[in-house]
């Protein structure tokens, strides 16, 4: 299938892109990016969170002292892709060039959301993510963890710090639940400030449901009734089991309290 995408102000319909061999994005992974799900084919839909995604990109660009692109132009370009793709990936290079691509939702996403998936704790410092507070093109640590998880027969990898505390998954933020309280790792541990994470925290608090941002150590993890992960594309996916070394956690992906977080995507906006 021929892809449709934008690069440096030009709409292209092909499956390749031409980059200068000295391009920092190619040599160092020097880009920032964000991936978002477009609800009801609208960037203005509250769940799409278009402005939040652009704001996070701009925050990273300013932190790196890179060129800020023309956001109005980028939105106009994205609008062209919206009728064709439910998921957009927006990448910005150091000189302000943009690459906007699209993709489709996984066919088995509804099944994963309902039945849960098997997770694997990537207990190796090799899998730690570079500059975790920013979503940069250097995603090698998370990529390696996810590839190893799949080789071992798991669907998702969980990244940890040097002390064994859980941080996030290879593709999303962690969520846990026990005794009426939702838990998610705190930002100061070194995790990505996910857009979906932020919105879900606000939603739960507005529903008078307690949320704690805290360190995920072994004591907490082994007492959780639900462990799930989420991002702006997959929403919330629970784990049915998680393998951590020689130990395996068995979880209930049909736990009734999952409705509290799923409701955000149904009625939260």
Automatic annotation (TrEMBL):
It comes from the Bacteria. Belongs to the class-IV pyridoxal-phosphate-dependent aminotransferase family. GO terms for cellular component: cytosol. Keywords: Aminotransferase, Transferase. PANTHER family: AMINO-ACID AMINOTRANSFERASE (PTHR42743), AMINODEOXYCHORISMATE LYASE (PTHR42743:SF11). This is Aminotransferase class IV. GO terms for molecular function: transaminase activity. The keyword Nucleotide-binding does not apply. GO terms for biological process: carboxylic acid biosynthetic process. It comes from Rippkaea orientalis (strain PCC 8801 / RF-1). InterPro entries: Aminotrans_IV (IPR001544), Aminotransferase-like (IPR036038), BCAT-like_C (IPR043132), BCAT-like_N (IPR043131), Class-IV_PLP-Dep_Aminotrnsfr (IPR050571).
């Amino acid at each position: 299938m021929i892809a449709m995408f934008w690069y440096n102000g030009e709409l292209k319909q092909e499956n390749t892109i031409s980059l200068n061999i000295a391009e920092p994005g190619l040599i160092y992974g020097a880009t920032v990016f964000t991936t978002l799900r477009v609800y009801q084919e609208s960037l203005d839909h509250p769940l799409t969170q278009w402005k939040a995604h652009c704001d996070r990109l701009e925050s990273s660009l300013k932190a790196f002292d890179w060129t800020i692109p023309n956001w109005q132009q980028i939105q106009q370009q994205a609008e062209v892709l919206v009728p064709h793709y439910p998921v957009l990936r927006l990448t910005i290079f150091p000189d302000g060039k943009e690459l906007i691509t699209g993709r489709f939702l996984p066919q088995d996403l509804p099944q994963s959301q309902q039945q849960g998936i098997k997770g694997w704790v990537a207990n190796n410092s090799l899998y730690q993510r570079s500059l975790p507070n920013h979503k940069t093109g250097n995603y090698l640590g998370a990529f390696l963890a996810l590839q190893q998880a799949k080789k071992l027969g798991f669907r998702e990898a969980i990244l940890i710090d040097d002390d064994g505390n859980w941080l996030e998954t290879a593709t999303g933020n962690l969520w846990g639940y026990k005794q009426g309280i939702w838990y998610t790792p705190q930002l100061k541990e070194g995790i990505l400030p996910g857009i979906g994470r932020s919105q879900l925290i606000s939603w739960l608090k507005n529903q008078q449901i307690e949320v704690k941002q805290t360190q995920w150590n072994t004591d907490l993890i082994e007492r959780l009734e639900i462990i799930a992960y989420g991002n702006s594309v997959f929403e919330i996916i629970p784990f049915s089991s998680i393998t951590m070394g020689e130990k395996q956690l068995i979880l209930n992906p049909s736990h009734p309290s999952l409705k509290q977080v799923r409701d955000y995507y149904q009625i939260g906006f």
